[in-house]
């Protein structure tokens, strides 16, 4: 790989060199008398020294004079320059593509280019992280949707991007910013709710001192991760066992989720890794592999650029053949048909679209399907989307799959029949497809 990639999201900074990730850290800052502590070290002291903690410099990248705790740092650009020096230490001097999770202006891109050049790095160009991830996702789709959305979370904001295909290009054509809807605000609210729950269950207040508050704060990422995959979890808070509920966490982002769902309708939604943990939304999970694949697939395109600019569109490529062309319908009977993936489950005459919040419930002698709501029980089985397809995970020992007892997660295929030893009906796995004209 002849160039590197800096993925700039203050929640999780990533540096890729040769297609492989060489750095992963946060952009948190803790001011000291002479310099600053950054990254995970700063994150570990945020609640102990809250007046010295800072994290808005990448979101508001500028050279506006500010009264910061250390007079050696005059403005946000000073902090950004310091952190870039740490991150790029040891990085070979080669062209560097910068992907950001922010809605930067031309002036901010120019400032960022100057900061990189001051560290003897040659900026190759700028683009949105979602653009790279979406292009990697589309390259693997035979018939991708006409419009695709991608959502990402940073420390202080959430951002929704809309993409469409124009000939052989993937184009970013619309974007929405949601200020004060970032990870920090959600963590602060969740921290207070956990503390209240701890007091109610154990009579212990984890916020009674700065050090105990920091210990709880350091456990927040793990609690978000656990409750994105399970209905309950037990958290050890200074030796006190506290049970946390998924529906309480989902309630914190309910209004935001409704806003996003109303905005995108039925279009596919790509979830960044932070959105998977913090948003509680259903969609297509993205990983760092999508960024790595996009960097590799677009190497020739970015190397040929002669002007430093912000890219809002890039060619649609294929992981195996390079430039992706429009697929024609094949009439060759020797070609194996493409297997339609499971996308819905048929409950008697009703088809339910699978989401990561779909659950199976037992009502009397009947098996029913519902979307998990805060007021409902976790049910007897849940559905999780994986790279291999939709997977059913039993939450009860009574679940049957094709007549056999299901004891572990299983990837579903068309025609699979899901039942229960205590019910008389079963649910069938189906896949719905449409023609090019939408019928």
Please explain how this structure is put together.
- The structure is a single chain.
- By secondary structure, this protein is α+β, with helices and mostly antiparallel strands.
- Among the domains are: 4-133 and 288-316, Nucleotidyltransferase, domain 5 (2-Layer Sandwich); 344-430, Tumour Suppressor Smad4, CATH 2.60.200.
- Helices cover 27% and strands 31% of the residues.
- Strand 2 and strand 3 form a beta hairpin.
- The chain starts with a strand and ends in a 9-residue tail after the last strand.
- Mean pLDDT is 85; it is low at 319-338 and 434-439.
The gross shape turns out to be: globular
Q: Biggest β-sheet: count, sense, barrel? A: 6 strands, mixed
Q: Uncertain spans, ≥5 residues at pLDDT below 50?
A: 319-338, 434-439
CATH architecture descriptor text of one domain: 2-Layer Sandwich
Class of one domain, according to the CATH hierarchy? Alpha Beta
Mean pLDDT: 85
Structural class: alpha+beta
End-to-end gap? 44 Å
Number of strands: 30
